[in-house]
Design brief:
about 425 residues; alpha+beta; paralog of FGE (formylglycine-generating enzyme); Type 1 dockerin domain; four-stranded antiparallel sheet; four-stranded mixed sheet; about 20% helix; binds calcium ion
């Protein structure tokens, strides 16, 4: 019976769109010493993690909009994205909005190259847009929720009612980097256990040549009154476009192009959040490790975007659908959000209809609740979980049943 119900649900829900990929680089050396700066101590991180090699692009944010902003109650889209420096158009009417990239400008880029939009950093995004994107990634993309996951946003409004108290949740997998995580990835040199002044492996001021002239210390920023592209309406360079210029850990464009949001709560009233690294329209001082930037968390402007970070890579644990190294409640949320769709669960258990999310995946998850290693894969090993796991699962199921958003036949039976 439950398989029939799952089939009916599968036939009526939209099929999940293809998933985006965010390239990550590992940042190790946990427990490094902080650097003393006028604004405080920065750069010490006690755990290993991963961080986006580049800023989040228009193409990546476009998928987010098409997945989550058909009616856009949270203001994920800003109409400026369709004009000026922005790269994303909105089509249709509320309730059925779709989004597309702006058409490339032939010859509009540096040295007569075409200026394309998909590879440019997304702009006109607030701090809230950035953490909602992180939640969506955290929850497996597709129909994944924007208001829970790595961060909990309350109130159902573009600016959440808990704006001044939002912090990263303990089981987050994808998230906005903390200021220290961002700073370490940009400036820390593990070879010498010290910090560079610029995110380009040097203390020497970068030039602002376009990527075609990359000297290994080239950044898209403002020198005097000269921008890198020479066109304030086509001002961005491709995310990761400076292939010779990067931080010791291999990140691109932490200096310039767009300034990047971080988690830091710099002021509670009004709520301001951290943004670092400078942009196409700011000078060399803005690129420095010593420069601590911040702006209103609700600000959406033409020179601020973001990159994401992630927990350190973990061994694949069957049933760990959010890939954080443990089979936990967060995996249930991923399962619930994609039930009945064609979606490739991470760490899907063998023998559970690969590439499709069904009641089988729930059963497999429940049987592995609490696991933290790859041992025990395979349906033949479905066993009664440890008593403590049962108790925890039962208690959590009671909570989940009271808040679940969708009829989930397997949950009704399993809990
Ligand atoms: Ca917004
Ligand atoms: Ca940047
Ligand atoms: Ca998990
Ligand atoms: Ca499956």
């Amino acid at each position: 019976m439950k398989y029939l119900l799952a089939f009916v649900i599968a036939a009526t829900l939209p099929v999940a769109a293809h998933a985006i990929t965010i390239n990550l680089v590992p940042v190790g050396n946990p427990g490094n010493a902080a650097e003393v700066q006028p604004g405080g101590l920065f750069g010490r991180v006690t755990t290993s993690y991963q961080i986006g090699a580049t800023e989040v692009t228009n193409a990546q944010y476009l998928d987010f909009l098409n997945a989550k902003a058909a009616s856009d109650p949270y203001g994920l889209y800003n109409t400026f994205m369709g004009t000026f420096e922005g790269g994303i158009l909105r089509n249709g009417s509320a309730g059925s909005y779709t989004y597309s990239l702006k058409t490339a400008v032939t010859g509009g880029g540096p040295l007569g190259t075409d200026y394309t939009y998909g590879d440019k950093p997304v702009v006109y995004v607030s701090w809230y847009d950035a953490i909602r994107f992180a939640n969506w990634m955290n929850n497996g993309q597709g129909s994944g929720d924007t208001e829970t996951g790595a961060y909990t946003l309350q109130g159902g409004t573009p600016i959440p009612s808990n704006a001044a108290t939002i912090t990263r949740n303990a089981n987050a997998t994808w998230f906005l980097p903390s200021e220290n995580e961002w700073y370490k990835a940009a400036y820390y040199n593990p070879a010498t256990s010290s910090y560079f002044d610029y995110p380009t492996r040097t203390d020497a001021t970068p030039d602002n040549l376009p990527p075609q002239g990359d000297t290994g210390n080239s950044v898209n920023y403002l020198v005097g009154s000269n921008t890198t592209t020479g066109d304030s309406e086509l001002p961005f360079t491709p995310a990761g476009g400076y292939t010779l210029t990067h931080s010791p850990y291999g990140t691109f464009d932490q200096a310039g192009n767009v300034a990047e949001w971080n988690e830091a709560l710099v002021s509670s009233s009004p709520v301001t959040r951290g943004a670092r690294g400078g942009a196409w329209d700011t000078n060399a001082t803005s690129l420095l490790a010593a420069t601590r930037g911040s702006l209103a968390a609700s600000a959406e402007n033409s020179d601020t975007g973001f990159r994401l970070a992630r927990t350190a890579a973990v061994a694949n644990v069957p049933g760990d659908y959010n890939n954080n190294g443990v089979v936990d409640m967060a995996d249930y949320v991923v399962w619930r959000d994609h039930l009945g769709t064609s979606f490739q669960l991470q760490n899907e258990v063998a023998g559970t209809t690969p590439g499709t999310v069904t009641a089988e995946d729930y059963t497999a998850w429940r049987a592995r609740f609490g696991n933290t290693s790859g041992a025990g894969a395979g349906l033949e090993s479905l066993a009664v979980p440890e008593p403590s796991a049962w108790i925890l699962a039962a208690a959590t199921c009671a909570v989940m049943l009271s808040v679940r958003r969708r009829f989930t036949p397997a949950l009704g039976r399993g809990c």
